[in-house]
């Protein structure tokens, strides 16, 4: 059964304090791994998609990496506006629906 | 990024009434649209998958007669919550997928409150 586990559940950082969020997955053939950001009361906003181990993508203060078993979302020098819930999801080769983890809620204080 | 429009953003209704939620992909044709439900502080739970012109596929435990899904075109899907009850109160989110290695984009969500 395909499964996605995110850790930690919650993360509190000071502004400028870099850290990483983890997403471990098991899937029967990976079509893609996706990172989304979700603000309270809003739908998920697409951040990155990774397709193969070793792939990396960057956007502003965020960098996503992928291995055969997990993905990391690195946040460099975060700002308060980076506070949100970050969701990881996988899509397998056979299916079309995304399987989501429970998310990591990030709070960045100034 | 691509835009998926979902409305209404919030609806309050009396128990027993039906509520329709629309989901439109504005700048691409969606091979498949998905409907999710999200409870407070929890992740998204897939309710159903719909392909244009065919019947929706519902996840185990989701009542297809209560949650009616219509996918009339490649850019529009609707979810109708029939005879809504307080336990149906939740945050409903749609997404649209162009197929292949395309990205699944999400609507802004609909907060349903049934009194």
Primary descriptors:
heterodimer, A: 110 residues, mainly beta, six-stranded mixed beta sheet, five-stranded antiparallel beta sheet, 0% helix, globular, B: 115 residues, seven-stranded mixed beta sheet, four-stranded antiparallel beta sheet, 11 strands
Number of helices of chain B: 0
Count helical runs of chain A: 0
Average pLDDT figure of chain B: 93
The dominant shape of chain A is: globular
Kindly report how far apart the N and C termini of chain A lie.
Answer: 41 Å
What do the pLDDT scores of chain A average to? Answer: 95
* Helix-strand category of chain A: mainly beta
- What's the helix-strand series of chain B? EEEEEEEEEEE
How large, in whole angstroms, is the Cα Rg of chain A? Answer: 13 Å
Instruction: Note the main sheet of chain B.
Output: 7 strands, mixed
**Helix proportion of residues of chain B, in percent?**
under 10%
Describe the structure.
The complex is a heterodimer of chains A (110) and B (115). With 110 residues, chain A is an all-beta fold. Chain A has strands at residues 3-7, 10-14, 19-26, 30-38, 45-50, 56-59, 62-66, 70-75, 84-92, 99-100, 104-109. In chain A, the strands form two sheets. In chain A, strands 2, 4, 5, 9, 10 and 11 form a six-stranded mixed β-sheet that branches. Chain A has a five-stranded antiparallel β-sheet with strand order 1-3-8-7-6, with no helix packed on it. With 115 residues, chain B is mostly beta strands. The mean pLDDT of chain B is 93. The chains are: A mainly beta (110), B mainly beta (115).
Secondary structure: elements and pairs:
The complex is a heterodimer of chains A (110) and B (115).
Chain A: E1 3-7, E2 10-14, E3 19-26, E4 30-38, E5 45-50, E6 56-59, E7 62-66, E8 70-75, E9 84-92, E10 99-100, E11 104-109
Parallel strand pairs in A: 2-11
Antiparallel strand pairs in A: 1-3, 3-8, 4-5, 4-9, 6-7, 7-8, 9-10, 9-11
Chain B: E1 4-7, E2 10-13, E3 19-25, E4 32-38, E5 44-51, E6 57-58, E7 67-73, E8 76-81, E9 90-97, E10 105-106, E11 110-114
Parallel strand pairs in B: 2-11
Antiparallel strand pairs in B: 1-3, 3-8, 4-5, 4-9, 5-6, 7-8, 9-10, 9-11
């Amino acid at each position: 059964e395909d499964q996605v586990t995110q850790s930690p559940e919650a993360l509190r950082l000071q502004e400028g304090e870099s850290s990483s969020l983890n997403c471990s997955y098991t899937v029967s053939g990976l079509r893609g791994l996706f990172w989304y950001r979700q603000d309270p009361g809003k739908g998920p906003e697409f951040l990155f998609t990774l397709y193969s181990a070793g792939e990396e993508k960057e956007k502003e203060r965020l960098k996503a990496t992928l291995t055969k078993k997990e993905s990391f979302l690195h946040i460099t020098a975060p700002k308060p506006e980076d506070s949100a819930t970050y969701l990881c999801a996988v899509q397998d080769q056979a299916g079309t629906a995304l399987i989501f983890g429970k998310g990591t809620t990030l709070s960045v204080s100034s | 990024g691509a835009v998926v429009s979902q409305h209404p953003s919030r609806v309050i209704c009396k128990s027993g009434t039906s509520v329709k939620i629309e989901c439109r992909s504005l700048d691409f044709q969606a091979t498949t649209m998905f409907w999710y439900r999200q409870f407070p502080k929890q992740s998204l739970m897939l309710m159903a998958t719909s392909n244009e012109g065919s019947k929706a596929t519902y996840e185990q435990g989701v009542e297809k007669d209560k949650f009616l899904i219509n996918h009339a075109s490649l850019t529009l899907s609707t979810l109708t919550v029939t005879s809504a009850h307080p336990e149906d109160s939740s945050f409903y989110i749609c997404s649209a997928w162009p197929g292949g290695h395309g990205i699944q984009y999400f609507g802004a969500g609909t907060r349903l409150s049934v009194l």
